[in-house]
Amino acid sequence: MALREIIILPDKQLRLVSRPVEKVTAEIRKLANDMFETMYEAPGIGLAAIQVAQPLRLITMDIAKKNEDGETTPKPRVFINPEILSSSEEMSVYEEGCLSIPEYYEEVERPAKVRFRFTDLDGKVHEEDAEGLFATCIQHEIDHLNGVLFVDYLSKLKRDRVLKKFAKAAKRAAE
Ligand code: NI
Questions:
Q1: Does the predicted TM-score (pTM) go above 0.90?
Q2: Would you list the domain boundaries of the chain?
Q3: Which tens digits make up the pLDDT trace of 100-118?
Q4: What's the 48 CA to ligand 1 centre distance in angstroms?
Q5: Over 70: is that where the pLDDT of 66 sits?
Q6: Which residues are catalytic?
Q7: Ligand 1 centroid to 99 CA: how many Å?
Q8: Is the pLDDT assigned to residue 70 strictly greater than 80?
């Protein structure tokens, strides 16, 4: 496994529409392993391949919860070519963050439940229901595959403010 660099705003690659994974090859498995290592190290609970500059429809996720002893059992999941099949009318609000928009958190409203289809690392296709944090996370990550970021759901004022902040930081870093 190897750590990969996470690209951050205002990197234009974050706006790319990722292409489907045609076949689960050894290379795809290696990418998924690297993404897990990168995601855990960050640390984060979800990562889309485009965030490590690979425009492929592949997501890693681990939303394992802490148990009563404060210990966490990892629950790594890989979703290849994920597709939302249906969304609930009921909405829920979560405070979201993104490894590509470090140290910025805002509440976002999304459908509370979704049904989605995906391919696993063995090339098998599954359908699954998601609710709670899982539903928010899968929607956030699928958005990445379409070049959409959670700040796109904020008011224009808030969005412009965060985009400007990151553009300035990048400019400073380049000087
Ligand atoms: Ni994100």
A1: yes
A2: 12-174
A3: 999 999 999 999 999 999 9
A4: 7
A5: no
A6: 141
A7: 6
A8: no
